[in-house]
Sequence to fold (444 residues):
Amino acid sequence: MNIKNRTLFIADNLDILRGINSDCIDLIYLDPPFNSKKKYKAPIGSPAEGAEFKDIWTDEDIKAEWHGEIAEENQELYQVIQASEVIYNKSMKIYLMAMAVRLFEIKRILKSTGSIYLHCDATASHYLKGVLDAIFGIDNFRNEIVWGYSNSGRPKRFFAKKHDIILLYTKTDKAFWGNYRIPISEEYLASHYRQVDDKGRRCRIRVDAGKRRYYYPEEGMTPNDWWKDIPSLNSVAKERTGWPTQKPLALLERIIKASSNEGDIILDPFCGCATACVAAEQLNRQWIGMDISPSAEDITKLRLEEIVDKESNLFSPFTDVIIQTQPPVRTDRIEQVPPHKQLPKAHTYKHEIYGKQEGKCVGCNYSIPFRNITIDHIVPISKGGTDQKENLQLLCNACNSTKGARSQSEFIAILKEQGVRTDATPRPEHRTQTEQRKLFQNEY
Fold:
């Protein structure tokens, strides 16, 4: 592991995740933006005063090379994300791309025994589940947990929206499970524990394959995948910090107890007011937090100070929490590409150009899988062209063969003669949403 316990990064979590060694994290909880199309700001006078962030996704929030990175890693996932623009809108596509590049790294850094809990709501939970299925595999989906809560406000039409979704995936089938139990309610006890054993102890008896199994109330019970026993934080809750999207400690305590042991490493890449970090500290786990807001540093230290046993004098949040603004450097073995196998300079731009062309061939304008699209020099090398990004484009194999060493104008003229391209063919960036939907339906 190349990061120390109790490290808080104030930076973009993607850069940090890419700098963490592989297979070293036991549990990851993330409560990312939900694509709510809102701006959030902590109230003046609250401990989190100064914290603010937007959950509105535009072209400025992604890099062109992410298109190529996702398509190269998982072409099917890239097509699903592209389709979300047609089904929903462009902001959803951008949001899912931003999440996908991070989730690739999250899977890499998880141990084979590790788990991920992704907290979201109905806005994008069904889209995110598709992304997680593609990255972690549908066989590693474990639970869709419904966290139900009640607070003020009721709509005048339809039902009140009072729940979040927590998607639980594991990296492999070897994932740790802590056999977490909760106390049995009096109501459940009265309705299900009506029998007694040979010693007169109250129990529940079940017969399976001719064998009796005795269940006792003191053993507790495994929670269902709908949690209504953990309330959300109201405005006067003791642990309330004013952080706009703060979650209760009880919620994180349940997750951490269920999927980790003492001493394990817990990571929260969107830690905000550090609820996961505080819960990990209380439960004797190691932790790493990340947030892009500078306010996260002060609020994290303040919350940790409240739970520290000052008499023990073993840990001081204001001196022992490590604050980093630069990504870590990986120390695990990273396979080096031998010189004779290194790609020509032009190919280093392939991911970025793929994004700018939105995965489409410049010639015929069809969507092409990443591995089947080829770097082409607009002005051929034989005619003075260079490897500079401005002289590069991506073509499908058919168009690349057609172009050969011809100039761009000659190439386009041939495509028009063949009926492959016309002047009326809109480029990807100029299509309306209706045109995109029709094209998608025709292609797929």
Residues 148 and 228 are 5 Å apart (CA to CA).
